[in-house]
Amino acid sequence: MKNFKRILLCSVILGCFFSVNTGIVQCEEVDKGKIPEKFLDKSVKELPSGIKIWDEQEAMAALNDSEAKVLWVDTRPNLFFKAGTLKKAVLLVYHKNEQLLDTDKGATSFLTKESLAEAMEKEGAEKVAYFCQGPKCHRSYNAALHSVSTWNLSADQVIWFRAGYPNLLKYIQSDQKLKRKMNKYFQGAVVN
Hints:
alpha/beta, Oxidized Rhodanese, domain 1
């Protein structure tokens, strides 16, 4: 009986160690404004689950790479999408735990396992980059986590574009050469 208790105790300790060190504990969806501060630091380029984190430079490299097979998913509400989004983006609105809100009545583009698979197949994408209103916006962060933890996508396929739409827009507008090419990178009212 003594050996059984030792084995059980060791199993529990090892299980806790591995779950903490593999990021399982940190793969939980968060509420608005509650993304852990350590993941907002621009020097951090990967979540504990293995999901890559991109900011403006990584996004620009992918947007300029004609061979990149990245599906850009705008997780923001339709109103934001219409005001402006990335040229190659698809609108798949994300809600925590896939729960729709009363304000979503009549909307048609929601992020689900099926809608993501369909969009990736249509675009021939091998990876998905989620974005929203910037680093503290929970939608893209949660969508990335949800894709790996619930839908079983490989972390190598999923990117959290942390900088988000507004920061990429500012980045491009601050560079005169890039600013002249707004139509190459953006669509919607922002370029009209």
